Every structure is written in structure tokens, then in C-alpha cells.
């Protein structure tokens, strides 16, 4: 299992590469060209410059998150073909730079959504949270304004201001798009890009919808084990894989995350794992707790064990973290709690490794004694 850490670039992240490198076990930075709008080719020279910047600090640049999918592709508009061509070109350029995994999502209009970016817990830490009533009742524009306000210094990934301006028009365009339409549009997209990804030795890793249910009346199709299974079957290729995000899928208690993890890991379909916990309240609201199993509703130990048992050798990163120790950072993306998350996950992983070694030793010695 390779440890990675998301980084937004030196102009747009409070965390530095030098800090990231000091997290035990760190292997690769998860980067992106965040200033490029969806649909544009990522120029090779800029990708190589980012790679160089990361490698100079002693880490690899194996994973990209995200290459965003243009709305015209999700809407299935005739203009989608040129955006798909641009996407194919970006895959080629990233492969040229040695990138192995590209995380992407297929959520209409919005990326991940929360009602609070800094809800205070009794211990004084702040967390991102989702109150169903607030999201369901609030006027979309009010929520957008609030997200913009709370994001303050940093623009949130997926919530860029330019994108928000076109939102009303997008809502109209999605009015007649059902889940089945959206799935067909995903199929069209994957049938065009997976062969390119396979040829260039890149694994495409679709990220589940966050939260894993329809919001604002928009369709969502990456919310459960069944839907993920259907997606990886669209094109049968090692390049058609998933990002197992425990916190996104896990916000719905009907999703059994350790079981889903084991299911897809056994099929070698998890190219990238986002490991984080969420605490689900009785009414379905949730907040992003610490990674520790006891602190949230997901058994992170069981998730890591599922990966370990199946011989997972892909990439993982801690996902969002709490804001602790007075840190000022992009919501969810502080240094401290994500580093704690890595240590928790590595602690579980290392214990399982030791246990396995001991078992092998015992069976070897008993075998030798015969
Ligand atoms: Mn995630």
C-alpha cells in the first residue's frame, strides 16, 4: 500500500511539500493543475513542471486528482466529443509524465457538498458537516454563497467561483436528464477513454458521489456497490477502476464499507483508496470525524484489514481531516489531522503485517519440526 497526500500547489495550499515529505511512509503527492477548467488539455510542459517540483522534494507524482469531466460530457451534448478528445490528450500527457492513476468523478454540477465547513466539536476541533435539512431546504444560491464565504482564502476544489456563475443554466440543462441518461453518458465517455488509458498504462479511478444520494434534484449514479459494479463492467479493463472513498460511500449507512472494500479489492478494481471516517447521526446528518474507528460510524480498522487481506498494493490517501491545533488551512485539507490519519492507518497496516509474519514463522517452524 503506497501512502499519498493531496496537495493543491504552492500558491494554493497552506501545506508545503517539505512538510508532506516528513509524514512517515510518504510516497507520492496527489496533484493537479487546478487552474485549468474542465475540458481543457493539460499541457505536457506544465504537467512535467509539477512533476519536477514534487520530485525535487523526494516524492513521486503517481496520482492525479482530479481531471474534471466537462458538463457537456455528463449531459451528453453533441459538443462532448471535442471535450473527450481533450481528455484523451490529457491522459496521454499524464502518462508521459509517469502518472499511473487518474481520479475523476461523474457528479452533475456539484462536486462534494457540505452544509458546514467548520462545525465545532466539543473538543474545539472543527469539521466539515452535512445537515440534510439545511441542504434540502436551502435555496441553492444561498448554499453556494455560504460555501464561498466559508471557503474564504482558498477556492474549494469543485466549487470554483467561475463554475458557480453558470450554475442556473446547468440546472435547466439537467432538468430532463435521468439517472439512466447519466449512466449512458458515462458509458459513452468510458468507451472512448478507457482504451486510451489502457494503451498508456493509466488506471482511471472513478470517485463515488459525495454525499451518496441525489441532491438539489440532480441525478447521481455512483452511490453504492451495485452502481460501482455496473460501472466497472461497462468496459472490461484494468484501466477501468474505482477510487474507494470510505467517507463518501460511508455517509449512507446502507453501504457496508469493509464489505464493499473487500469486494472490489478482490477483483483488483481499487486503484486508489481515500480512507476517512464519518460520524452519522440518528437523523442521517453526518460530520467528518477523526480517522479512528471509535470516533466515527465506519470501522476503519476493518476497511484497512480488507485491503491488507486482499494484498492491496495500490495508492491510498487520508481524505479530509478535522481542523485541529489552531491550524488555518483549506477546509478538510489541513496538515495535522490528515497526518494523524496516516499514522492510524499505517499503525493498523503494520500490525496486520507483523501478525502475518508471525503466523508464517509459526507455520514454517511447525512445518520444519515434522
Ligand atoms: Mn474522497
TrEMBL record:
SUPFAM superfamilies assigned to the protein according to its UniProt record, in alphabetical order: Xylose isomerase-like
Enzyme Commission number: 4.2.1.8
Cofactors (names): Fe(2+); Mn(2+)
Catalytic reaction list: D-mannonate = 2-dehydro-3-deoxy-D-gluconate + H2O
Pfam families: UxuA
InterPro entries assigned: Man_deHydtase (IPR004628), Xyl_isomerase-like_sf (IPR036237)
BP terms from Gene Ontology: D-glucuronate catabolic process
Keywords: Iron, Lyase, Manganese
Disulfide bond as UniProt keyword: no
A single GO molecular function term of this UniProt record: ferrous iron binding
Enzyme class, first EC level, given as a word: lyase
Pathway terms, separated by semicolons: Carbohydrate metabolism; pentose and glucuronate interconversion
Entry similarity comment: Belongs to the mannonate dehydratase family.
Task performed by this protein: Catalyzes the dehydration of D-mannonate.
Name used for this protein in its record: Mannonate dehydratase
Organism (species): Domibacillus enclensis
Gene name tied to this protein: uxuA
